[in-house]
Amino acid sequence: MREALTPELAGFFESGVSIIVGTRDARLVPDCVRAVGARCDVGSGELRVLVPAATAATSVANLRDNGRVAVCFSRPKDHRTIQVKGRVLAIEDAGPEDRALIDAYRCGLAQELGWVGVPPRITLRIAHWPCHALRIGVEALFVQTPGPGAGELLARAAEGPGSR
Questions:
Q1: What is the C-alpha separation between 163 and 129, in angstroms, rounded?
Q2: pLDDT tens-digit profile of 26-63?
Q3: Angstrom distances, CA of residue 95 to CA of 21, 37, 100
Q4: 131 vs 99: CA distance, rounded Å
Q5: In this structure, are strands 131-143 and 81-93 parallel, antiparallel, or unpaired?
Q6: Distance (Å, rounded) from C-alpha 26 to C-alpha 65?
Q7: What's the whole-model pTM score?
Q8: How far apart are the first and last CA of the chain?
């Protein structure tokens, strides 16, 4: 089953929000890695997430083993957070066409983290090339913004209170 990605969500995911990719191994031991960009295909319900090769070896090994992934997109200045759960459909080497996306993402992340006091010179130092591109089939979207709706499916939260 694929969850619908909307143009609004795509704009959020592709902006300078913090992106953390979570995986687990066969013993259910978790691992996470910071991603350095994302691109959504609204029509197909697929997400392409870029993770640095220098920091993603364990996560990539986990994904090759079981394919299960959770990606957390969080905006520091207001804590809006959406978690995507799905299955990795492919793991590819990022290509030259991804460099512009990564550069734009790093600048956007530096601006976002600047809102909470992290100097751009620190943010721009994150590992970012070469990268793996994770093609993910989105299966579920969850609200993780702190508050009463945290943990709910995005579609249910969008229906509003009393819709359960």
A1: 45
A2: 999 999 999 999 999 998 989 999 999 999 999 999 99
A3: 20, 13, 10
A4: 9
A5: antiparallel
A6: 8
A7: 0.92
A8: 21
